[in-house]
């Protein structure tokens, strides 16, 4: 009885693996690159004036599947009609206004780009103890003892640091593309009108100039490739007479600001109050933009609107309605609390805030809305958000070293100063203040809250209170300004870092003509941890390499080369030779002589 040797063919194994791997890889890749679609990400929509129920996701999808030539044809027809009947040279908008909010802000928090300071070989060198061993070796008792110490350090320290450095270099490279993938994918699908990054653009304020420049280049050329800094000429200082930064489109046909990133300074960019210096702020402003400035955007009045109903100092002083306008205030709040290292920089911040207050419309007027973009969140008692109140001070000079939130006094400056709200109903405008919203980062876990004060509370000094946004909505605390409960929403945007799910925030702000007030809503679009990004691309790499190898094996087989036989180190004929199991069978297998 004969038995044949059975070896699995490598090409057959590879073929079966690819049959499973390729479909899985394709499916995961489609999900990763279309994750905003699968996650139904979309900017919230303004409420419809009719009974029609609209889906933000479907409205977003329509902007992708409606043929571009239809929109262009509409715009061209409108342009022709306008050119005939008017001498206005500005490009007209399409006939039908968009159902989307005219201001859609893509908010990203705390990317914190790391670099060479997290790579051991960058600051320790490559195998430093090996160099020490060669340089200091001596044939003596102490020399041999030192050599043994160096040999142990090479094994336990240098080798570990080398492989950790290789891992970290790969990790940093992948992390840049992970963050870029979030920005690129969400920006493509949701189509924001504006974009902001709410501080901590880089990972440390203590970087030297060369390392800071490297990370700034990675920020613009890799993570946010294709984006641009807000032009310096548009980063305005508050003034009574000001130029508009732009117009908001009712027709969703202007993408100028969608390419610009409104950068906010964070503590890892310029430091806390006890760290901030003119050198740190100067290099940040050169790379990313000013630390304190404002932008103003006007919403054009709808066609046929009677502008005589608006406030006019000469013809209509009775009206409280102003032309709809959004005011974005970019504010460095790292040095609002004391003690600060640079009192001059702290004075500059407070002077800026005072100018914001002094150049704002009176609280009695309607139609303006303030969006405050900053980094450190307002004060909240322990238990409201993940980060609890925390302050630490430098031991050498007592200046502020670290903080999780602003102090109670600094927080009141936002609420009662910039927004003009008051605990007293006898204050101007009944203490209701200016309508607005506060956006910040710093607390990587994120938090959505509502700050309010009850003017009707009895006994003692009326204090500001804060609740989670959903709780405030559920308990109907929101929207009670007329009942003596003014308030403002504060959104601490969850970090876009992988450990926090690769989050992106979607803020919609629209104008309600009936109440002549701006309104806002917020949603999120998380990707998931960075491990998903790595898994998909590793599987894709394995699948591509495997497919190339399989095709190459097939090509070699066509020209007569047995790849399977070469793999096992034997010829095709010997692989098929019967195996002798007894002495008799072995003898029969021997060739006969003569």
Automatic annotation (TrEMBL):
Highest taxon listed in the record's lineage: Eukaryota
InterPro entries: Metallo-depent_PP-like (IPR029052), PGAP5/Cdc1/Ted1 (IPR033308)
Keywords: Membrane, Transmembrane, Transmembrane helix
Ranges that cross the membrane: 20-38
Keyword hit for Plastid: no
Identification of the protein by name: Calcineurin-like phosphoesterase domain-containing protein
Organism: Podospora comata
């Amino acid at each position: 009885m004969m038995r044949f040797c059975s070896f699995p063919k490598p090409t057959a194994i590879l073929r079966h693996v690819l049959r499973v791997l390729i479909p899985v890889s394709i499916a995961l890749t489609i999900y990763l690159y279309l994750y905003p679609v699968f996650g139904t990400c979309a900017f919230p929509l303004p409420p419809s004036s009719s009974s029609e129920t609209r889906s933000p996701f479907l409205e977003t999808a329509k902007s992708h599947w409606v043929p571009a030539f239809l929109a262009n044809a509409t715009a061209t027809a409108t342009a022709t009609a306008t050119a005939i009947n008017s001498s206005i040279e500005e490009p007209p908008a399409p006939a039908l206004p968009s159902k989307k909010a005219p201001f859609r802000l893509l908010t990203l928090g705390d990317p914190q780009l790391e670099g060479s300071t997290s790579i051991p070989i960058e600051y320790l060198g490559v195998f430093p103890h090996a160099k020490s061993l060669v340089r200091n070796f001596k044939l003596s008792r102490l020399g041999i003892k030192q050599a043994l110490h160096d040999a142990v350090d090479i094994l336990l320290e240098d080798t570990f640091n080398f492989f950790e450095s290789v891992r970290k270099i790969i990790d940093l490279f992948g992390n840049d593309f992970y963050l870029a993938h979030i920005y690129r994918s969400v920006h493509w699908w949701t189509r924001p009108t504006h974009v902001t990054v709410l501080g901590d653009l880089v990972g440390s304020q203590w970087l030297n100039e060369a390392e800071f420049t490297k990370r700034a280049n990675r920020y613009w050329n890799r993570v946010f490739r294709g984006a641009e800094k807000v032009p310096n000429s548009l980063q305005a200082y508050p003034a009574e007479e000001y130029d508009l930064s732009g117009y908001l489109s009712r027709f969703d046909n202007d993408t100028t600001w969608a390419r610009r990133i409104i950068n906010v300074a964070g503590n890892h960019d310029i430091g806390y109050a006890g760290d901030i210096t003119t050198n740190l702020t100067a290099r940040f402003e050169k790379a990313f933009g000013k630390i304190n400035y404002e932008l103003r955007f006007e919403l054009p009045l709808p066609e046929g609107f009677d502008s005589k109903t608006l406030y006019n100092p000469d013809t209509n002083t009775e009206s409280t309605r102003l032309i709809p306008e959004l005011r974005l205030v970019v504010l460095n709040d790292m040095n609002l609390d004391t003690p600060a290292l640079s009192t001059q920089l702290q004075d500059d911040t407070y002077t800026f805030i005072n100018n914001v207050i002094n150049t704002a419309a009176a609280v009695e007027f309607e139609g303006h809305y303030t969006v405050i973009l900053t980094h450190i969140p307002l004060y909240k008692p322990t238990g409201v958000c993940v980060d609890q109140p925390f302050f630490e001070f430098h031991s050498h000079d007592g200046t502020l070293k670290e903080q999780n939130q602003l102090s109670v006094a600094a927080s009141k400056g936002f609420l009662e100063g910039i927004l003009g709200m008051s605990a007293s109903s006898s204050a101007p405008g009944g203490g209701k203040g200016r309508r607005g919203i506060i956006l910040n980062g710093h607390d990587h876990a994120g938090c959505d809250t509502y700050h309010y004060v009850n003017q009707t509370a009895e006994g003692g000094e009326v204090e500001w209170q804060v609740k989670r946004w959903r709780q405030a909505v559920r308990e109907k605390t929101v929207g009670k300004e007329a009942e003596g409960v003014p308030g403002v929403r504060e959104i601490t945007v969850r970090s876009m870092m992988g450990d926090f799910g690769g989050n992106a925030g979607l803020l919609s702000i629209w104008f309600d003509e009936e109440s002549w007030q701006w309104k806002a809503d917020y949603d999120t679009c998380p990707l998931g941890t960075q491990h998903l990004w790595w898994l998909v691309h590793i599987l894709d790499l394995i699948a591509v390499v495997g497919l190339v190898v399989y095709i190459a094996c097939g090509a070699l087989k066509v020209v007569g080369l047995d790849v399977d036989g070469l793999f096992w180190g034997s010829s095709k004929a010997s692989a098929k030779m019967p195996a002798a199991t007894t002495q008799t069978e072995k003898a029969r297998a021997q060739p006969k002589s003569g």
